[in-house]
């Protein structure tokens, strides 16, 4: 059966685009964090939307499921198949064409496999700006960004991927294609199908193309690295900078001192602009589409204000683009530093911004009581109420002991999140990592409706099985 399917897939996408050799498949079968390893009958690399549709039809007939994959940078195992091997990985990376840039309508139409950085560059070449920005931008794709409703470091000003998208093209499980590539800012003709696919993590259809919103290119930027005592101080600073700078505030990234220590330990070519590692730090960035030479002065005035009010300990304002990049390097190096430090129980929570300090105090206390010595390493998009609350094993314990306690710690963190009416996945999706927790923290009516939608779009369970939705058979 699999041999027949492979031959059929080769007829659709070309023999060299169906990988069956174990070594060739290997990079597609393991996630970025090295937490999951799966198996697949083949990795299939279509070159266009029609090919995607034909591959889906062939897999459906053969009873083989399909795991869509873009840049394979998922933080929740969303793009990794299970170990059974009764799936193909559908890699969209050959579909990397920028189809159209419209500087009048301020839109760009792209294939789903275009790498995010290439979209940013194409926007720049047209004198425009595409604001989604995250550490994996050199390898993640627009399809993956859409399927996870990615956030990143500029959500405060520009919103998540959902808010940056006007239209979609989607191949359905039955092999039909929906051309929803409308470049319209206004379209109130019924239910928004587009919004169903954003954040659906490959479980409802394969996104093959998208119309994205473009923005005026920022002409001025001002960036500061600020040291502070704690999260409460960071929240006070956020309120002050917002008051003084309005929507020029583009990024407000929070990093604890313990987290900075890991970056300094594991990432080359980084330098802290202070003599000592502070208890906490914030990377603040303002931007303006006017060539506003007063932007730096505005940021400085906000920080002087905050220093006088004893909200901040110290601040360094970047003297040019090179220093700004070096501040960002400290922020963007965090995920890599965490991987190098060892196993972590990763959490990507959001709570109402005003509750963030209380959340951290309560979560830290409960974690310390349950597992003394476990190290909370925190950072995140504080302006969005989004915290990456990572727990690293105590220095004197081994991986096996930590693996045993990790689910208990996750329960503590997620229960505290729920108490604050927060979300257990702010931006990384559910994937396979958080499927069990979906049943625990989502209302039964939401789960029931989500399963009903899945049954409409993918009645045979062809698409990304085991991801996002918990099995409802025992409910
Ligand atoms: P993949 O990892 O390949 O896939 C992600 C999910 O989307 C999977 O469920 C997959 O099945 C599905 N999928 C992929 N393509 C399609 C498609 N065409 N149609 C349907 N489904 C599809 N995320 C944030 O939100 N903010 C961050 O700041 C951030 N920073 C990161 C930093 C690093 C260093 C890394 C490794 C990851 C980071 N991520 C972040 C997580 C990740 O979600 C994003 O990198 C990105 O959105 C995933 O894109 P991808 O192309 O790699 O998708
Ligand atoms: C970030 O904000 C990403 O850098 C990754 O969302 C978070 O590694 C993580 O926990
Ligand atoms: Zn993040």
Automatic annotation (TrEMBL):
UniProt-listed InterPro entries: FAD-bd_oxidored_4_C, FAD-bd_PCMH, FAD-bd_PCMH-like_sf, FAD-bd_PCMH_sub1, FAD-bd_PCMH_sub2, FAD-linked_Oxase-like_C, FAD-oxidored/transferase_4, Oxid_FAD_bind_N
GO biological process: respiratory electron transport chain
SUPFAM superfamilies registered for this protein in UniProt: FAD-binding/transporter-associated domain-like, FAD-linked oxidases, C-terminal domain
Keyword Flavoprotein: yes
Domain FAD-binding PCMH-type: 36-217
Reported cofactor(s): FAD
Annotated protein name in UniProt: FAD-binding oxidoreductase
Native organism: Microvirga brassicacearum
Gene3D superfamilies membership: 3.30.465.10, 3.30.70.2190, 3.30.70.2740, Uridine Diphospho-n-acetylenolpyruvylglucosamine Reductase, domain 2 (3.30.43.10), Vanillyl-alcohol Oxidase, Chain A, domain 4 (1.10.45.10)
Family membership noted in the UniProt record: Belongs to the FAD-binding oxidoreductase/transferase type 4 family.
PROSITE patterns tied to this protein: FAD_PCMH
Keywords (A to Z) from UniProt: FAD, Flavoprotein
GO terms, molecular function: catalytic activity; FAD binding
């Amino acid at each position: 059966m699999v041999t027949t399917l492979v031959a059929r897939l080769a007829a659709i996408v070309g023999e060299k685009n169906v990988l069956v050799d174990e070594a060739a498949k290997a990079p597609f079968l393991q996630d970025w964090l090295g937490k999951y390893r799966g198996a697949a009958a083949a990795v299939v690399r279509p070159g266009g939307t029609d090919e995607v549709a034909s591959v889906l039809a062939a897999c459906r007939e053969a009873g083989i499921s399909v795991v869509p994959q873009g840049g394979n940078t998922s933080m929740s195992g969303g793009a990794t198949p299970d170990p059974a091997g009764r799936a193909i990985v559908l890699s969209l990376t050959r579909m990397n064409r920028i189809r159209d840039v419209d500087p009048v309508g301020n839109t760009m139409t792209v294939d789903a496999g275009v790498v995010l950085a290439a979209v940013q560059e194409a926007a720049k070449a047209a004198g425009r700006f595409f604001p989604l920005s995250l550490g994996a931008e050199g390898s993640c794709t627009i399809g993956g960004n859409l399927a996870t409703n990615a956030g990143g470091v500029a959500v405060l000003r520009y919103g998540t991927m959902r808010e940056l998208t006007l239209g979609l093209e989607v191949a359905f499980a039955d092999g039909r294609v929906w051309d929803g590539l409308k470049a319209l800012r206004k379209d109130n003709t019924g239910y928004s199908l587009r919004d169903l696919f954003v954040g659906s993590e490959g479980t409802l259809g394969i996104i093959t193309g998208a119309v994205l919103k473009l923005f005026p290119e920022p002409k001025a930027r001002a960036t500061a690295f600020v040291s502070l005592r704690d999260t409460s101080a960071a929240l006070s600073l956020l309120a002050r900078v917002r008051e003084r700078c309005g929507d020029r505030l583009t990024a407000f990234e929070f990093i604890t001192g313990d987290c900075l220590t890991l970056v300094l330990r594991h990432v080359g070519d980084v330098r802290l602009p202070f003599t000592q590692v502070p208890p906490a730090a914030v990377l603040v960035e303002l931007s303006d589409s006017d060539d506003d030479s007063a932007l730096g002065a505005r940021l400085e005035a906000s920080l002087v204000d905050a220093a006088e009010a004893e909200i901040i300990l110290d601040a360094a304002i970047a003297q040019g683009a090179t220093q700004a990049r070096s501040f960002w390097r400290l922020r963007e190096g965090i995920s890599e530093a965490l991987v190098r430090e060892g196993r972590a129980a990763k959490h990507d929570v959001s709570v109402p911004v005003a509750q963030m300090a209380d959340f951290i105090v309560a979560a830290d206390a409960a974690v310390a009581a349950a597992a003394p010595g476990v190290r909370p390493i925190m950072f995140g998009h504080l302006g969005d109420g989004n915290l990456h609350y990572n727990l690293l094993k105590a220095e004197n314990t081994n991986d096996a002991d930590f693996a045993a306690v990790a689910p208990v710690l996750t329960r503590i963190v997620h229960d505290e999140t729920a108490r604050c009416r927060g979300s257990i996945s702010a931006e990384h999706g559910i994937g396979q990592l958080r499927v069990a927790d979906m049943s625990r923290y989502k209302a039964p009516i939401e789960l029931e409706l989500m399963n009903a939608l899945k049954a409409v779009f993918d009645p045979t369970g062809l698409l990304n099985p085991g991801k996002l939705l918990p099995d409802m058979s025992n409910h």
